[in-house]
């Protein structure tokens, strides 16, 4: 069913946040997080309907240089203020759908972000991360105005072909950050995880980083090389790697690939996410690995450029770069026959299901047995994960369980869209908008 978008006007907004501590410092991009702010926003439309959107802030993902130059709380405060500025812009900007809303407000918001942070080269991912809660609330406002109650019907017609699949399984990428003890990695595999995502790009200069990454990969492979799974065609575990753009030289990745060959592990590496800094224009087609673009694709023109450089997969981050931007990327990927996976931002359980909707509707990832692929690592990183888990709608649903390294999806999941249209009292009660 296609909907002729009504013009939606927002007459009131509200926001708040909750700080969630992590079990141990969480390392990537050469830095470490100790907590993540969960931001909740509310929108009230001129028709009187209220919608709420949730986000997890990750300043380190959004702009690693800004993160490094501020205290952790200061960086989070800046992103939260930018979310508030986005709300004020949304109040002044009538829109047909959330994609159109973003197209209208992003140029102004980018300028405001640069002024706020005093950073002329502010990374656009910082802006997108600040927009996630606003975008999610805008989608639910759009759904409410059009009397839509499921994810599939909510997607505008021009993006439907890219999200036409209904996977019955999603492989869960089990993340291994820098400091994780090896016994925890082995325990994860023994409980059924079979896609092991290894964070590379450790602290230090390029030579030190490469040596640390090679050593870490070697330790993990030696530990796991004889483990077997029924979830892959050859019974072997799958590795994915993610450097979050830390490398500058192609020779470094070539050395890593050579080492993986010597270990006999190269055929188990399904994809390497964003090895190079986003300004690097090296061609990656001859590296002998599928290379995926993540941080470096802010819009379609960036994505096309990366395809021209030999990248052959996209990482979609609806929970970091907004669902609206992810729809554009998914559409381009569909048109170019480029596979997509969904990576995490260490988000809360409600956002896991927002992302699960996206991963569920994408074509299966090559090399997996007819299943999509997504990362979720909040369960291993939040001190209060269990309370957060119980605060979501349908917490006891079977599609929220991790079974043998997968989420098993069924008609109930698709009928309920993972619960994203349901109230979330814990977060909504933090807003005065909810009390008016």
Compile the SSE list and pairings.
Elements: E1 10-28, E2 31-45, E3 50-56, H1 59-62, H2 64-68, H3 72-91, H4 98-117, H5 124-145, H6 151-154, E4 169-176, H7 182-190, E5 195-199, H8 206-224, E6 238-242, H9 250-263, E7 269-273, E8 291-293, H10 300-308, E9 313-316, H11 323-336, E10 340-342, H12 349-361, E11 372-375, H13 378-381, H14 385-390, E12 406-408, H15 411-416, H16 425-428
Parallel strand pairs: 4-5, 4-11, 5-6, 6-7, 7-8, 8-9, 9-10
Antiparallel strand pairs: 1-2, 2-3, 4-12
Which tags fit this structure?
globular; 19% strand; 436 residues; single chain; nine-stranded mixed beta sheet; 12 strands; three-stranded antiparallel beta sheet; alpha/beta
Mean pLDDT: 96
Major beta sheet, specifics?
A: 9 strands, mixed
Described by its quaternary structure, the protein is single chain
Query: How many whole angstroms does the radius of gyration measure?
Result: 21 Å
Supply the number of helical segments: 16
Report how far apart the termini are. Answer: 34 Å
Name the helicity range: 25-40%
Beta-strand percent range = 15-25%
| String of helices and strands | EEEHHHHHHEHEHEHEEHEHEHEHHEHH
Give a count of the beta strands, DSSP E runs of length 2 or more: 12
- Helix/strand-derived class? alpha/beta
* Unreliable residue runs: none
Q: What best-fitting shape do the alpha-carbon axes yield?
A: globular
């Amino acid at each position: 069913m296609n909907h002729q978008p009504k013009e939606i006007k927002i007459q009131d907004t509200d926001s708040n946040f909750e700080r969630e501590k992590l079990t141990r410092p969480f390392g990537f991009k050469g830095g470490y997080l100790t907590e993540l702010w969960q931001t909740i926003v509310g929108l009230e439309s001129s028709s009187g309907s209220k919608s709420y959107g949730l986000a997890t802030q990750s300043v380190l993902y959004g702009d690693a240089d800004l993160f490094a130059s501020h205290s952790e709380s200061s960086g989070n405060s800046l992103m939260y203020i930018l979310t508030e500025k986005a709300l004020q812009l949304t109040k002044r900007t009538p829109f047909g759908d959330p994609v159109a809303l973003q197209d209208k407000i992003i140029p102004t918001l980018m300028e405001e972000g640069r002024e706020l942070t005093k950073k002329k080269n502010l990374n656009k991912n910082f802006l997108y991360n600040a927009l996630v809660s606003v975008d999610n609330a805008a989608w639910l406002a759009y759904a409410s105005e059009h009397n839509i109650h499921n994810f599939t019907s909510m997607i505008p017609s021009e993006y439907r072909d890219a999200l036409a699949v209904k996977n019955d399984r999603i492989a869960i990428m089990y993340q291994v950050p820098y400091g994780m003890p090896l016994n925890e990695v082995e325990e994860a595999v023994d409980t059924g995880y079979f896609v092991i995502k290894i964070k590379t790009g450790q602290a230090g200069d390029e030579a030190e980083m490469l040596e640390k990454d090679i050593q870490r990969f070697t330790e993990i492979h030696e530990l796991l090389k004889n483990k077997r799974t029924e979830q892959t065609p050859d019974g072997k575990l799958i590795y994915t790697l993610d450097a979050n753009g830390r490398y500058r030289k192609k020779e470094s990745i070539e050395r890593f690939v050579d080492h993986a060959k010597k270990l006999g592990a190269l055929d188990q590496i399904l994809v390497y996410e964003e090895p190079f800094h986003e300004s690097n224009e090296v061609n990656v087609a001859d590296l002998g690995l599928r290379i995926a673009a993540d941080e470096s694709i802010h819009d379609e023109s960036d994505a096309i450029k990366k395809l021209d450089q030999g990248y052959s997969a996209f990482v979609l981050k609806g929970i970091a770069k907004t669902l609206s931007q992810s729809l554009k990327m998914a559409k381009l990927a569909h048109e170019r026959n480029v596979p997509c996976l969904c990576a995490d931002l260490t988000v809360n359980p409600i956002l896991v299901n927002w992302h699960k909707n996206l991963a569920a509707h994408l074509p299966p990832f090559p090399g997996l047995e007819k299943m999509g692929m997504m990362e979720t690592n909040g369960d291993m990183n939040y001190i209060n994960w269990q309370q957060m888990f119980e605060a979501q709608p349908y917490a006891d649903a079977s599609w929220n369980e991790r079974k043998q390294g997968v989420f098993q999806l069924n008609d109930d999941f698709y009928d309920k869209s993972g619960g994203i249209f349901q109230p979330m009292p814990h977060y909504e009660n933090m807003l005065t908008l909810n009390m008016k």
